[in-house]
Amino acid sequence: MTGVIFDIHESSLHDGNGLRITVFFKGCPLRCRWCHSPEGQSMKIEKLFLPDGTYRMAGEFYEAKKLGKYLRETAELIDNGGITFSGGEPLMQGEFLLELLNEIPDIHTIVETCGVCDSQLLLKVAEKVSLIHYGLKIIDSRKSEFWTGCDSKTAIDNLIALDKQSQTPYIIRMPLLAKIIDNENNMRDLMNLINSLDRVQKVEFLPSNSMASAKYALLQKEIDPLCQNCPSGKLPDFFKLKVPCEILS
Ligand code: SF4
Questions:
Q1: Number of domains in the chain
Q2: How high is the pLDDT of residue 170?
Q3: What residue owns the CA closest to ligand 1's atom 3?
């Protein structure tokens, strides 16, 4: 089976514990206005227009067995770390992801998901990975629809299914965008939801990425101006969780 990948980073320090290979899948069901990987949203292979007037393609077809062999061999060179599947949304290519995971059974693996996917597929993938990074964002459905193009129901339902029906450890990860994520109502809703979960290990907030607008320029698009006025927020005093919580640098 083939899948579409738009990047492979061979020495990432930000996508989980240790040194990791990160594989970026094309395609995402969301359209977050602040998205830091706009080249990962569409399943289509796209041109990225470089400042020197040339272009490169974002997206390449990979065969699962061949990519699995390459990842196995490359991961052998890593002492402490593993492989992270990110995107885009890896579960948009669920069958390809499952086939790929079957090729690397003894390697520490992380899947980063926005949770907007079929719940049975999520549970199936969870059975095969070491850890899940679950990307929670906006709890209010109407606001979620405005900022991400999708209401929050599926992501919340799937988070609860993962919590109750799987044994795989998971971490909640989300951007700390002032006004959008970091506003009092959303932070209270997030806190209440997270504190109602039984198995979440940790919460990690990701700072806003000031490089994102450059990526939009490569696609000859512009980042939503509403997001340019929303730098990284800070955790409010009332935000108390029963699990560790960290703002990553
Ligand atoms: S879920 Fe992630 S990849 Fe998808 S649109 Fe949102 S920020 Fe971009």
A1: 1
A2: 98
A3: 88
CA 208 to CA 234: how far, in whole Å? 11
Q: Whose CA is nearest to atom 7 of ligand 1?
A: 35
Ligand 1 surroundings by CB, under 6 angstroms: 28, 30-32, 35, 37, 40-41, 87-89, 114, 135
8 Ramachandran zone, left/alpha/beta (phi>0; psi -120 to 50): beta
Rounded to the nearest angstrom, the distance between the alpha carbon of 231 and the centre of ligand 1 is 17
When pLDDT is cut at 50, 70 and 90, the band that residue 210 belongs to is low
For 176, the token pair is 């700390």
Q: CA dist 243 to 46, 159, 226, Å? A: 40, 16, 32
Give percent of the chain with pLDDT exceeding 70. Answer: 100
Alpha-carbon distance 142 to 191, whole Å?
19
| pLDDT tens, position by position, 113-129 | 999 999 999 999 999 99
Q: What is the mean pLDDT of residues 186-192?
A: 98
**Element spanning 102, H or E:** helix 94-103
84-102 average pLDDT score: 98
Q: What is the mean pLDDT of residues 100-124?
A: 97
Q: Report the pLDDT averaged over residues 194-208.
A: 95
Q: What is the CA 213 to chain-centroid distance, rounded?
A: 18
Whole-number Å distance between alpha carbons of 145 and 129: 29
**60: domain range?**
2-247
Which of 34, 112, 148 for mutating ligand 1's site (highest number of atoms within 8 Å of CB)? 148
| CATH number, domain with residue 149 | 3.20.20.70
